[in-house]
Structure formats: C-alpha cells, structure tokens
Amino acid sequence: MKTARELGLMPESRLAVGPDNGITDVPGVAVGHRSLRGEGIFTGVTAILPHPGDLFRLKPRAAVEVINGFGKSAGLMQVAELGTIETPILLTNTFGVAACTEALIRRAIAANPAIGRKTSTVNPLVCECNDGSINDIQALAVTPGDAMAALDEARAGPVEQGAVGAGSGMTAFGFKAGIGTASRRLRIGKRDFMLGTLVLANFGAAGDLVLPDGRRPDPRVPASPERGSVIVITATDLPLGDRQLQRVARRGGAGLARLGAFWGHGSGDIVLCFTTADPVEHDPAKAFSTQERLADDHIDIAFRAAAETTQEAVLNALCMAPATPARNGRLYPALADWLKENPSP
C-alpha cells in the first residue's frame, strides 16, 4: 500500500515534511500496535508514548479539544482541568477502554508503588472509536495483556499505518480506514521544531470525502447517518502554553473539515495536543517553575501544521488500508483501489 503523498494526493505545502512523515518525528515520541485477529475479531490497540521516561513523574503538558462529544474515552476530564498527561495514550475500540485503563494503571503502579497510597492516584488516558461494523465488539476481545503488548512494541521511527492496531476495524467515508500519521517541520526564528499528528479515523458519511484536488470518491456503499468518530493526537516539541496548546488542538478540526467532515450528531471527534517541552514534575523541588512559551505572533505556523497533518494523516489511514468485509457481508472498499480506477485527469 502507498501513502497519500506517494499516490500524488497531497499538494505542495509551505511547510517541510518530517523525515518519516509521522508523529514519531517529534523527538522522544514512540508508537506501538497490537492487532487482534480471530473468528469475528478484527480489532486492536495502539499506544503513543510522549517520551521514554516515567510519565507519572515527568508529565507532558497537554490540552483537549472536544469537537463533538459522542465518545466514551477515559481521562480527558483531568487533562482538560490540569493540563498534563501522566500515562501513555492508548487507542482502542469502545468496549476495550476498560481493559486499556486497567493496563495503564497497573503499569504506572509497577513503576511507582506509592500511587494511590502515599501519593495521588494516576489518570489513565484511553481514547476510542466503535469498530463494530467489522469487529464483533461484544466479544470484548481486547485484554489488559494486549494493551501491555502495544506499549511494549512502542518504537520511534516509521509508524505502521492503515488497518493495524486500534485501526484494524475502523472505516471512514464509506471506505476502509484506520491509523494514519503525518508531520511538519516548523522553522521559527533560528530554531527548528516538529509537529506530528496521529489519527484513529472512523468517521465521515459515505460520499462526503473531498480529496485535495476536489474529487469526491464514491465508495458505492449504502448511505448512512454520520455516526463515526475520530481521535486526533497531535504532538510537538514547540514550547506552548496551556491556552496555546488548546488553540493548536482546535485546528485539527480544520483538517477534518477540509476532508468533508461536518461532525455529525453521533460522531465523537476528539483532539489531544501535547508538547514535550518543559514537562511538569510530579514532585517539584521548588514552589515556582519557569516555562518557555512561543509568542502568539508566531503561532500561525503551528496552526497550519496542525490542520495539514490532520488532513494528511486521515488520507494516509484511508490510502494504507485494504478493502475489508464487514460483519453483515458488505465490503468496505479501499480508497487506493478507487484511485487506480479513477485516475486524476
């Protein structure tokens, strides 16, 4: 399978693409997958690690943007309130949230036995989409062990995309979709930074997809209401304040809108944005800390990067996923196959 860029779908950008065109271009960020296959089972877990250290002890700063809140994620409320994350981020199907939550709690306690006893509890962060059209979601196939396996597989470098990990059973705009990622290099002053986005794409009504060249692919599947979801994880090493992180997260919605999304009533559209710059210590040695922050006059480049990487990540999720049968016998086609049959004029 080829990415959207390899298929010629992405127009020229003012911003350079990172070396692997993925969220792992942000230094320290790692991604791992656990894919589950079996009788009626087509699901999994994807793990995003913001840095290789102890996240409970050294918490990346973060913000949440809930575009449409039809979702069952865990941990977002505390992130919105405190502005930090303290576990890896796990993506899975809707009924896998509990298993992934348990895995994150157990992993954090193993590294910090004082959690819940001599210090605070831990806030496990799990986001979900419903893959029930392809996967038998009632089987509750995802276990804490699967979540641990995804965490153990997390690596820097190129990210596997398409129908893998949490993206195994996901669909978008009537096509097979899943996991996608993209990145941009940011030059501000005389310093270079990276911004990368990973999406779990499971949204969009059939026939609504708009490609960058204006074409509207027809998946030739029955029309249905927009009841999907999309999780957008944006990472950067750019030093941003709490308010700025949420503003960047909000621009993920611009990337989704470019694709034709309108965030329907039954859609859970969530953006989580974090920075690896100036993390927060769990036990600070001083009463006051100093954090670097980008001047607002220079933030447009981050807004552009967030919109572009979200759009391209979704297109990569679509382009890298093969045609897959649904549980009711219908077929979710591959966008790559449609592009072969309908070359750009």
UniProtKB/TrEMBL annotation:
InterPro entries, A to Z: ArgJ-like_dom_sf (IPR016117), Peptidase_S58_DmpA (IPR005321)
Keywords, ordered alphabetically: Aminopeptidase, Hydrolase, Protease
Signal peptide as annotated in the record: none
A matching Pfam family: Peptidase_S58
GO molecular function, one term: aminopeptidase activity
CDD domains (UniProt xref): DmpA (cd02253)
PANTHER family per record: BLR5678 PROTEIN (PTHR36512:SF3), D-AMINOPEPTIDASE (PTHR36512)
Assigned protein family: Belongs to the peptidase S58 family.
Protein name from the UniProt record: Aminopeptidase
Organism: Metarhizobium album
